[in-house]
Amino acid sequence: MIFLLCYVAVIVVVIAGMWKVFTKARQPGWACLIPIYNIYVILKIAGKPGWWLLLYFVPLVNIIIAIMVVHGVSTNFGRGVGTTLGLIFLPFIFYPILGFGDAQYQG
């Protein structure tokens, strides 16, 4: 039961952080809750073309594209490679830091 409560708490924190990242980038915050649409919006935040969404369905290519998109998000918020690595390996910590921190979207 304790594990379930901790899991739900982490999920809520990640959703809140992503919601805030979306709103900082002048996108609708609720978009982080819609499965395919949120990838499209992340592509817009990262400054990548929308057709890259199709590349997410290609095995092994999707890993490279996801890393490039996450790096685009972190650089558009004025952050560097450290934040990119954090968003890849510890998104439950770094999305709230990016959303609630002082990083500004530079688009």
The domain tally reads 1
| Portion of residues within helices | 55-70%
Question: Helix and strand succession?
Answer: HHHHH
Radius of gyration: 14 Å
| Beta-strand residue percentage | under 5%
SS element count, helices: 5
Major sheet details: none
Segments where pLDDT lies below 50 for 5+ residues?
Answer: none
**Number of strand elements:** 0
- General form: globular
First-last Cα distance: 42 Å
| Structural class designation | mainly alpha
Overall mean pLDDT score? 94
Can you describe this structure?
The longest helix has 23 residues, at 2-24. It is built from five helices and no strands. The relative contact order is 0.16. It has one domain. Helix content is 65%, strand content 0%. It has helices at residues 2-24, 35-46, 61-76, 81-89, 91-100. The chain has 107 residues and is mainly alpha-helical.
